[in-house]
Structure formats: C-alpha cells, structure tokens
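Sequence in, structure out.
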Amino acid sequence: MIWHIAKKDFLLNIFSARFIIGVLICLILVPFTIRVSIDEYKSQLRIYAVDKEKSEKEWKEIKVYSNLKPEIVKYPEPLGIFYKGINQNVGNKVKIYLQEYPFFPTGHASTRDNPLLNAFFSLDFITVLSIVLSLLALVFSYDLITREHEDGTLKLIFTNYNSRISFLIGKITGVLISLLPILVFCFLLSSLFIVLSPDIKLQVSDWMRVIILFIFSILYVLIFILAGTFISAMVKHSSTAIVLSMLFWIWFVFLWPVSGSYLSKSIVKIDLYDNVRNSLDDLDKEYGKKEGEQWDAIQKSLNMKGTSWWNATGGEDGYFETYGSPSETMEFHRQLNTWKEPVRLLYADRKWPIQKKYLDGLIRQQKVEQNLSWFSPSEIFVQAASCLCRSSEKDFLRYMDEMRRYRETIVTFLKEKKLFEKYIYFTP
C-alpha cells in the first residue's frame, strides 16, 4: 500500500508544472555556478603556479641562513568547486619567520580579478543546492495532507483499512522519489563538467566524498519534506500551508544563519585585532631597544669606534648579508647574532600567547555559531559539505598548526647546528 501511494504521488508530481519549473531552475543555475567555480579554480591554479615559481626562485637565491624564510604556497583544493567554504576568505601563502609564529595566511584570498565584485553574493554548487532543493522540497510537500483534505479523499483513504503511518510514509516517499531525479541530474551534470575539464583531476577518494555529499543531499531534502508534511498536517488549507512553508524556508535558510553569526559575536566578545597587533608591535619595539643596547655593548667590548661594511644588505626578520667587510665587523655581527637570534625566538614565544588568545576567541565564536546553526537544516548541510570538501574551519586550523610545526623544525635545525654562532649565518 505504501508503494501504491508513493507511485501515485510520484506520477502526479513529475507531470506537474512545479516539477518542470524545478528542472528548468536547476538546468540554468547548476551549469552556471559549476562553470563559474571551475573558472575560479583554474584562476587559483594559475595564481598557485606564479606564486610557487616566485617562491622557488627566492629559495634558490638564498645565500645565508639569516635569509632562511621559506614561503609555503598552498595548492588549491579541487573539491572547492563544489563548496568554497573558508578557502575563499583566507590567503594562499604562509611565510615562515623567526620573530613570529604563523598566524594567518597572506596572498590571494579571492580569485576574482576585479576586487569590487567581491561585494556581491558568491554562489557555488552547494549553496545553490541548499537554496533550490529546500524550496522544491517544501513546494512539493506543503499540500500533501491539505490537498487530500480539500478534495475530500482523506476520510475515504482511511476507511479502506489504511493506517496513518503507512499513508504518511507513502506520501513522503512519493515526494522524495519525485525530487531524486532532479538531485541526480544536478550531481551528474556538475560531475560531467568536471570530467570534461582537463585542468581538474579528482582522485578516487575525492569522488567518494562527492558520493557521500550526494547522500547528505538526500537527507537534507528529506528533512524539508518532513517539515512541509508536518505543516500540511497541522493546517486545514493549502493556502495557509504554503505561507507557513515559505516563512519556514526563509527563516531557516536565510535569516537564522545570519542571526547565528551575530549572536555568536554578541555572546563571545573578543578584542580587536588592531589591539593585538599593537601589543605585538610593542614587543618588537622592546626587542629593538634591547638589540640597540647589545649593539653598543659588543662594539665597546671589541673596542670598535664604528662599523663599516663592504657589500652589505638586509631586510625583515633579522636578515643581514655581507661579505668583504673588515674582520672586526664580521666578528661583531657573529657575536651580535649569537645574542639576538635566540632572543628573537624568545620574543616570538612571548608573542604567541597574545596571538593564541585572539585565535582562541575566534574559535570560540565559531563554535558558538556552529552550535546555533544546528537549529537550521541548511547550515547543518553546509557544515557537512565543508568537511567533505576540505574547506571547513577545522581544515584551516589543522593547516596552520602544520605550518607552526614546520617553523619549529626550522628553529630546531638552526639551534642544533649552532648556526646563530657561525659566520655562515650572515655571510655566503
């Protein structure tokens, strides 16, 4: 009996105007968004190639250990074609410094050539699915019960020894299998675009994630079908049901996610990053003052009236390179580096608690927002998509933890080799 009810609703839905409109909407939006995402990914690949070449060129030109500041360029995430997530808001490069722990990436945070376009709403495949499929699910289910009630067939159905649970399961199944072809069409079309793009290569594990994402999409649609069915069962008229369904859709798809973001900022207060930066700058000034005092002390100990260089250059984070200078100048810099580079690392350790406190505040805000989003099916779906597409906040934090561990590897190398105490730290 469940199958007969489901089959009846399925045939009724696929020949309806709303089914045709739903297919047309997906036929327009899915190719457009997936094409845009593919073009942005190709742009990311071009930027990655340029930044990588520049980074490798700078690496090959390093002549002294004081200039050992590797720049890591992150490879674009191919599954970001489906959902961009946090990757569209953070940079693609991390440079390793001794004076500070890696905190946030730099470089390109957006692949658009025109930065003025960043003010406009950015769509991707998952965003389109979360909006369109939830709307279609409610449009197909808002009158599941009210239609039978208005047609006068509801009592007739229950007099034929049909249980209410069988009737509901059949109705819900009918809507689900009506929307399933649209969902399959969206995923097949997007996958076809990716397969036909020679620059995009997804691994087997990536395609498995896409399949899991498809399963989550089915569950997402089912949630909105159940919501529409519940609304339809609670009211007597379809006109009332469609109004309540639209309000439900607008609130949980659009308004609640924005409200959750503002609520998280109200619940968890964090300091302005400008204040954090000012605290870090104060430590830099303190270090600079001590370095100046040590400079004078070493010159005095070596009976130097001044310092003269031949072929000398310098830069950020303690980079200094010279050759052909007087022997007393070389000894001066060796002693200065022996003191100042370990102190630079010490000040980096003092800066990190300030940075970490700010970062922990951001993480707490994000967790509060994440907990609030559990009241919205669309946000749950988006969170699942971000994890599967490796574009979630956790993926970003893991990546930055890896960068900080890499910095520690470099620091350990410099300490174990005692390079701060050697001439090769500042002269070729």
